[in-house]
């Protein structure tokens, strides 16, 4: 029933052997990478081993129940084991929602799409929605980069969210978001449609994505946009180009900190996450056939949700869910929506796991 956990267990035992190898122990980078993978796998292997242990005990108790002299004792044992087994099985089902790492930090990028100033305002609304949601769950929010719109909102905004299970809650938000509402500048009350894209990027560490000095070029410059005298007088902004092994250059720019060092550090965080995203997309393409029924492809071009303000309606097109509580959702109350996505994904994965 659980082939994926059998695979995890086999890899876990293989890693234990490698970590005991003196040659691996002498290579700090290799050892750190394997130890991290071993620690991640332990989160699923330990409950799976507990599940197998309980299944063995349950089988033994059921066999004893056929003996009249042992039936009462066996029934007592079965009554104790069944709730424990159900709890562990539920935990394993939840773990099926986790692809690989359970990242401690994510980077969220929101970009205005079609719709001009209204799209930038909508991007700002999404930023407020997500940051309220994150803070309500006790996660740390850190602004990394932003490019304000001319009438408010953002042409682009990048921020990080750090906390337990933040990735598991945000992972379904990548894609195209569409808004239908009457813009403030509209004199005749006509409803306009605008769009923004969201990308949720797991934030890897330097072991997972190694960027060498020779892989990048960078320059310092004066920051542009609003920000006072400092913006125009200090060359604190940083632009980085990554060129190795990519069909096209990756370019990242950060200008929001007064310190050039901090801007460089933030730009590298974004670059590392985008490179990791490319790696993950390649894996998703390899698994595309077996995962075609699952949600959350992460494709920014995929339209996933519509926000209709006149009807106070939100529709998630992936699971055909419509909620008439747009006002509370935009205030950051996303739990019902995200739980529905998690439940749907869980049903899909369980169906594949048992196939």
Share of residues in strands: 15-25%
Q: Span between N and C termini?
A: 8 Å
Outline? flat
Tell me what the CATH architecture of the largest domain is. Answer: 2-Layer Sandwich
How would you describe this structure to a colleague?
The protein has three domains: 3-95, no CATH class; 105-205 and 290-353, Alpha-Beta Plaits (2-Layer Sandwich); 213-285, Double Stranded RNA Binding Domain (2-Layer Sandwich), CATH 3.30.160. It is built from ten helices and eleven strands. It has helices at residues 3-19, 22-26, 28-64, 71-95, 116-136, 166-170, 229-233, 260-286, 326-330, 335-353, and strands spanning 105-112, 140-148, 154-162, 175-181, 192-202, 216-221, 237-242, 250-254, 303-308, 313-316, 321-323. β2 and β3 form a beta hairpin. The radius of gyration is 25 Å and the shape is flat. The chain starts with a helix and ends with a helix.
Chart the SSEs and their pairings.
Elements: H1 3-19, H2 22-26, H3 28-64, H4 71-95, E1 105-112, H5 116-136, E2 140-148, E3 154-162, H6 166-170, E4 175-181, E5 192-202, E6 216-221, H7 229-233, E7 237-242, E8 250-254, H8 260-286, E9 303-308, E10 313-316, E11 321-323, H9 326-330, H10 335-353
Parallel strand pairs: 4-9
Antiparallel strand pairs: 1-3, 1-5, 2-3, 4-5, 6-7, 7-8, 9-10, 10-11
List keywords for this structure.
Double Stranded RNA Binding Domain; 11 strands; 10 helices; eight-stranded mixed beta sheet; 3 domains; 47% helix; three-stranded antiparallel beta sheet; single chain; alpha+beta; 355 residues; Alpha-Beta Plaits
């Amino acid at each position: 029933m659980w082939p994926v956990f059998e695979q995890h267990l086999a890899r876990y035992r293989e890693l234990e052997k490698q970590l005991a190898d003196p040659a691996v122990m002498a290579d700090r980078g290799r050892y750190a990478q394997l130890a991290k993978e071993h620690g991640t796998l332990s989160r699923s292997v330990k409950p799976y081993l507990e599940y197998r242990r309980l299944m063995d005990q349950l089988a033994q108790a059921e066999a004893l129940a056929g003996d009249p002299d042992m039936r009462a004792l066996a029934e007592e044992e079965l009554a104790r084991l069944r709730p424990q087994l159900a709890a562990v099985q539920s935990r394993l089902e939840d773990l099926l929602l986790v692809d690989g790492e359970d990242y401690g930090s994510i980077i969220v990028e929101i970009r205005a799409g079609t719709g001009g100033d209204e799209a930038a305002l909508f991007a700002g609304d999404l930023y407020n929605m997500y940051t309220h949601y994150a803070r309500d769950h006790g996660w740390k929010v850190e602004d990394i980069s932003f490019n304000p719109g001319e009438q408010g909102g953002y042409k682009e905004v990048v921020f990080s969210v750090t906390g337990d299970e933040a990735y598991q809650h945000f992972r379904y938000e990548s894609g195209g978001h569409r808004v239908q509402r009457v813009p403030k500048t509209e004199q005749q009350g006509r409803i306009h449609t605008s769009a923004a894209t969201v990308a949720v990027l797991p934030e890897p560490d330097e072991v997972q994505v190694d960027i060498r000095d020779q892989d990048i070029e960078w320059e310092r410059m004066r920051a542009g946009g609003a920000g006072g005298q400092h913006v125009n007088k200090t060359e604190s902004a940083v632009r980085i180009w990554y060129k190795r092994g990519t069909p096209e250059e990756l370019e990242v720019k950060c200008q929001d900190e007064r310190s050039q060092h901090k801007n460089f550090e933030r730009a590298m965080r974004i670059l590392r996450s985008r490179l990791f995203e490319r790696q993950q997309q390649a894996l998703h393409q390899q698994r595309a056939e077996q995962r075609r029924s699952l949600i959350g492809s992460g494709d920014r071009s995929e339209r996933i949700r519509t926000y209709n303000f006149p009807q106070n309606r939100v529709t998630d097109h992936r699971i055909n869910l419509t909620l008439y509580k747009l006002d509370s959702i935009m205030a950051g109350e996303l739990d019902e929506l995200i739980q529905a996505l998690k439940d749907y994904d869980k049903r899909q994965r369980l169906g594949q796991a048992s196939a």
